[in-house]
Amino acid sequence: MTTKYSVECWIFAPDQRVLLLQVPARPGKHDAFWQPVTGGIEGTETPREAVLREIAEETALQLTAGDVHEVATGIDVVISPELTVSKTLFTANAPHTDVVTAPDEHQDHQWVAADHVAAALFWDSNRETWNTVQKYLTAESHADDA
Question: CA nearest 109: which of 31, 27, 33?
């Protein structure tokens, strides 16, 4: 079995809406669907370096290492008996909502209210990571209150 390492990032606008990117339909494979920023870790990149690169490539947002927060690592998604994707999960705060999507990867984007994110997602694995992000943010907000 092969394991590919990837990153997934849930980006929040200043008003706390969440960025989703639309992957175009592939006839015979899948309809168009919504997902967060996601992509593979290349070569000797760290997950943090990979997520910053993916954010820039997929949204044109130029964020820094301090703008992204690691939520979890080693989230394994079995794609097939031959392939598992092991994700490192991040959140990021965007300074604005001006996004330019990469036309070779995404055909649209939208900023979605947090309570509508799960319903917009196609993949169960994205809904599961969204739940992980929500739990992380809830724990962080309670830690700030202490």
Answer: 33
Q: Tell me which of 3.40.50.970, 3.40.50.150, 3.90.79.10, 3.30.70.1350 is the CATH number of domain 2-145.
A: 3.90.79.10
Contact between 70 and 48 (Cβ < 8 Å): yes
Per-residue model confidence as pLDDT tens for the chain (146 residues): 799 999 999 999 999 999 999 999 988 888 999 999 999 999 999 999 999 999 999 999 999 999 999 999 999 999 889 999 999 999 999 999 999 998 889 999 999 999 999 999 999 999 999 999 999 998 877 666 65
Which 3 state secondary structure label does DSSP give 86?
strand
According to DSSP, residue 6 is labeled E
Evaluate if pTM is beyond 0.90.
yes
Domain ranges of the chain: 2-145
Q: Strands 33-35, 108-112: parallel, antiparallel or unpaired by DSSP?
A: unpaired
Q: 7: burial class by Cβ within 10 Å (0-12, 13-18, 19+)?
A: buried
